[in-house]
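Give me the fold.
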Amino acid sequence: MSIRRALATCPLALFLAAGLQACEGQETAPGTGSDSDADTDGDTDSDSDTDSDSDSDSDSDSDSGTGTICDEDDFVIEPMPVSLMILLDRSSSMVTNADAPPTRWDQALGAIDTVLTDWTSPYLRFGFDYFPDGSQWGEVGLIADCGVSYDVQVDCADGNNAAVVSYLAATDPPPDAGNMTPMWCAMDNFNAPTYATGFADPGAQPYLLLISDGSDTCGLDCNCLDTPETCGDPAYGATAVELGDLSAELLSNGVKTFVIGFGGGVDWTKLNPIAANGGTGINTYIDALNEAELLDAFDMIAEAIVSCGYELDVNWDEVDPDEVNFYFDGDVVPYIGDDGDCDQLDGWHWANVEHTAMEFCGSYCDELKTGDIDLVSAKFGCPTVEVE
């Protein structure tokens, strides 16, 4: 099954809200013999262990597990939403094969339309932006159009798929010559939390998806405000180091970046540093030569963004966060500690200091992404089980 289809059907392993399991009280069972039951131990129940309940383990509750269930209050955990901002190259090179359609621009829009139709998870929020924005087209004194917008084209929001599809349908293709590739400036916009406030919403994990068929040709002088005489001259384009540093800055602001190189003319020396510092686990750009391969690239990205983070609806004034455990199909997941490295350890940790979000790490995150888990549940009232 493709990841697009898996996201469309919302598998139970990823999106099931799970309530806390209730406390089970002790039970006794009358019997016969010297201690009123029929077995040979010294208690009054009918099993063969030495505790006072009627199950076959040695704890004091009435289930068959070895852990003690300590409370009966309920709370709900849900996957943390993901914001995916698609940032598409709209430079002239995207239509250089206009005499032999479909152009790369048309193929990119076709793939994005398919994804927006298939990926219908309520936990995935889409947005769309492009570069350049055409604002400098034909201006005197500029070599070429390097303009980038001061406002995102379509911001991320719940149920935004149809809005992005409608916007794409009404968007003009790039001109067949003259405008350039302000990649650095378009990416840098997302370092400003006011540029796309929906994308910057702290209640969701933001991912920037850069799709380009080339490399930066405009440099760091965004909208050519200071050096119009060199605007659009490829010799002044952003360097590999500058692009990599920008990706690292985005990551420091919580934004993870994927890169798709679309077509045969990409500059891998410029795209790879962006991917390497993007924090997604996909450390090189994804190569796609046509619409079908672009859809395959989206599938790879979907697998990477399936959330291993969950939000908790808990009143911590009444509950001790040091007495919380999470379970996969009834088996406890160990806590890796406040300082545990989620990229290196297997277990879970708190995703914020308020204890309103947590994240599964390592092999446990992998199990969620592959759909091997049927039920994610949570219990509180017992001491947290930590990694040994």
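Residues 1-34, 57-69 have pLDDT under 50 and may be disordered.
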